[in-house]
Amino acid sequence: MFKKTSFSIFLMFLFALCFTCKLRPNEILTKQTQEKIHAIASSIVSKMSDEQKAGQVIHLAIPSKELDEVAVSELKKIMPGGIILFGVNLGTKSEIKKLTSSLQMEIKNLGLPPLFISTDQEGGRVIRVQKSVTEFPGAMAIGQTKNEVYAEKVGFITSYELNALGINLLFAPCLDINNNPENPVINTRSFGSDVETVTQMGVAYEIGARKGGALPVIKHFPGHGDTNVDSHLGLPVIQKDLQELEKFELVPFQKAIELGARAVMSAHIVYPKIDPLYPATLSSNVLNGILRNKLKFSGLIFTDAMEMDAISKNYKKEKRATLAILAGADVILLTSYGKNTKEYYDMILESIQNKEFIVGEKNLLDEALIRQISLKIEQGLFEDIEDEKIVSYLKERNQLAKVRYEELEKEGIKELNQKISKEAIRSWKKEFKPISLEEAKEYTFVITNKKLKKEFSLLGIKTLSEKKFQKLIKRKKTGKFIFDIHEQKDIKKIYKWLKPSSKSKIILLNYGSPFLDYPKIENLSVIFSFSPTKASLRALVERVFLEEEMILPANLNFKSN
Questions:
Q1: What pTM was estimated for this model as a whole?
Q2: Which residues pair with 509 in a beta bridge?
Q3: What CATH number has the domain spanning 425-545?
Q4: Rounded distance, CA 204 to CA 444, Å?
């Protein structure tokens, strides 16, 4: 008993030390062990056929919550190195575990390396896994707290809980600095509008996530925060040179890499002053020149989804997959299956057979595969690795993570989530004094969000539907009103109904994008949660109606209006 207790105390001490010093897991690995991993990976890749190599650099999607005929067909036909899961694939905890284990078993039976199984679980408005893991608020909410301990804990818990489900790769955190309020795609997915916040909070999140078990991927390199075009729908262009990027966009990425980040996702953005022809995903100037050579990144580079219009429409006549690998990417990420995956597979296989990946004395495709396999070994995905030092490292890392998670459970993960969500609540431009429940009786509440309605019901506050409100407003043109909003059309609708004069007092409870066009009226207040999760909506209600402490203005670059 004494020995077991002493060992547990030692592990807790060691883990606390690792977090305090921001010790990287790969620092535990000696140079000799890292070389051993590289040698094992090289041996595995050397035994692959051209057909297998063509598939291994592809990660793709599947259609359902089960290993159905389509999924089995994709695994056999494409032989991918990874699977990305979306909401359509993710059911209950047992269903997710069954799916991930079935995928790994099927790929093993095919004689292929274990899969990276990934998902986007950023928190806030980007949550793929529902209910089976803790639904934390998104990056911008966490960023407003300015508490990097929160960021580290959220990263760790999210990663640990995903890994327990068999999801071993996490496409988060976003290290994009959302300094452009017109940005339609990053928005609340960013930790903030300034370099310091994003660097501090994003790096802390990545370190925590790396220790949790699922591999975090920092994105979208070299920075997607200063765009006003959604790369899902168009091709963003940023007119900045390298010196400008070094002072702003690259800062959080550089810091994360210095502290051991192992995986990066590229952005589908053109930087004409760096590469006038290609977006970052297809640009050797960006991926090899800046990321590999300048920032000394030696880990795994993922493309963003290649089906996005920025790539699929603008470069459809080119060998997109080949260009990406030649530029420095290691993984071609596809969010589809069927015809599209076959097109990319054929594209890569043809380039292998034409020896297009051989540049000088290097085989760039083999190098990409070795990096991927090496990282899978580091992550403990291979069951048959017998090297004593590698096995010992993995065992120790897993035990440290287990002890850490158990401690956080004792402290209260649900309580932590609520605390973070509450401390994130901010106001628009000026301080806001909370309203007492007695004062709330003077207001008309028009609430559409079901979770918010429930929170108000628990407080005994009656809310109106939009239909009932429209009947009321025909008789009552001015007054005190509280609405919930999350996008621009909500504001337009509200002000179309009210046509407000200075006599109306209006409070908007915003759980979506904070970067909206708000009317220029004196008596308007906006309160932000930056997140639509249950904990965030509850925090929004509690901060506005149950507490006395002033709500501080958000630290963000808002539209000038």
A1: 0.93
A2: 484, 527
A3: 3.40.50
A4: 42
